[in-house]
Amino acid sequence: EGTISVKELSDKLKKPVTEVIRELIFVGVMAGINQEIDFETAEKLCKKFDVQAIEKEEEEGAVEEDTDLEEDINGVKRSPIITVMGHVDHGKTSLLDAIKQTDVTSTEAGGITQHIGAYTVKVNNETLTFLDTPGHEAFTAMRARGAKITDIVILVVAADDGIMPQTVEAINHCKAAEVPMIIAINKMDKVGANPDRVKQELTEHGLVAEDWGGDVICVPVSAHTREGLEQLLEMVVLSSEMMELKADPDRNAKGTVVEARLDKGRGPVATLLVQNGTLKVGDSIYVGTTYGRIRAMFNDKGEKIKEAGPSMPAEILGLSDVPSSGERFVVAKDEKTARARADKKAESIRQEKFQKSHKVSLEDLYSQI
Ligand code: GDP
Ligand code: MG
């Protein structure tokens, strides 16, 4: 839907700005002169002035609506996005690091993988995208914002320790979100490693291993000796192929913030995970109350890139502020629109807070002006 600034609206109505602002208060909107208001509000106001408001048709594909991030049935194949979960000290970080080292492309480039919160690994001819953020945090953010940012979960269970409270928590998260799990039975190199005990405990949570007649893939691995890593990654590829994940690279990009921080020299830096479309340098995006034009983009190897397609993480520069991880970003037709979207979001947050804190009648407010 389109927006119009208070100033533009007053010009169109040929009414003084103060009068427009006053009338806006009566319809419950506190707005400044440069603020963008939505069509619905503008329409209400026009009615008061006996003017009929007609919404301009948005140009084709001008603004991507931030609706769902469901599979694009007309799209092409995209890589799976994988999160590693599991109980503390069962080896999530070690496993992620070991997986990172299987990528020849990163060793060719000097073996330096930048920490940007997500990375890609090539297995045979397939690309896998791993989220580096702890799975629990990713899930909390996902649940808070209703965004789906993982296709497959690798659940790490230490072979010498078995199912623990956070393992159960992870299983429940995955079941609730309907995300398939692949079990990595880790620390197989340790004395006392007992994969059968892990499988036994899994059955208590409704998960039956394949070799026990069920459909849950369990791969014995060791992050230390790298035993089973290749097989684990092959299983991930196989599972993702069965899921037939799709996206449309020709659309404007949208996706999720993986992590973000303020860099002293470069300003706000954010890692975005593109979930549909292609993100390009020069694109204007909005994310929550933040917006900006992408000034530069880098991949997980720290290389400068011009675009990032579906399932690709990219570190970007150019945002007005630091967004929160888990927030969704959308490409707008231009920076002005992106800013208007961000401002609108900020305004709705302000109003929500305002309405919560002061339950003052609009008439009371009017008399204060
Ligand atoms: P996280 O808390 O799940 O991220 O676990 P970490 O990756 O930090 O690992 C916890 C401890 O287990 C560390 O001391 C690791 O060195 C150790 N560890 C992780 N994977 C293995 C493994 O495959 N074999 C052995 N022997 N130790 C492991
Ligand atoms: Mg860790």
UniProtKB/TrEMBL annotation:
Q: Which UniProt keywords apply?
A: Cytoplasm, GTP-binding, Initiation factor, Nucleotide-binding, Protein biosynthesis
Primary location recorded for the protein, binned into one broad class: cytoplasm
> Which Gene Ontology cellular component annotation is one that this UniProt entry carries?
cytosol
Record keyword Amino-acid biosynthesis present: no
Q: Where is this region: G-domain?
A: 80-228
The entry's GTP-binding residues are: 86-93, 132-136, 186-189
Domain of life the protein comes from: Bacteria
- Location of the protein in the cell: Cytoplasm
Every Tr-type G domain range: 77-246
One annotated GO molecular function: GTP binding
> Can the keyword Acetylation be found in this entry's annotation?
no
Family, as annotated: Belongs to the TRAFAC class translation factor GTPase superfamily. Classic translation factor GTPase family. IF-2 subfamily.
What role does it play? One of the essential components for the initiation of protein synthesis. Protects formylmethionyl-tRNA from spontaneous hydrolysis and promotes its binding to the 30S ribosomal subunits. Also involved in the hydrolysis of GTP during the formation of the 70S ribosomal complex.
Q: What protein is this chain from?
A: Translation initiation factor IF-2
Q: Which organism is it from?
A: Oceanirhabdus seepicola
The lineage is: Bacteria, Bacillati, Bacillota, Clostridia, Eubacteriales
Instruction: Report which part of the complete sequence is shown.
Output: 106 to 474 of 683
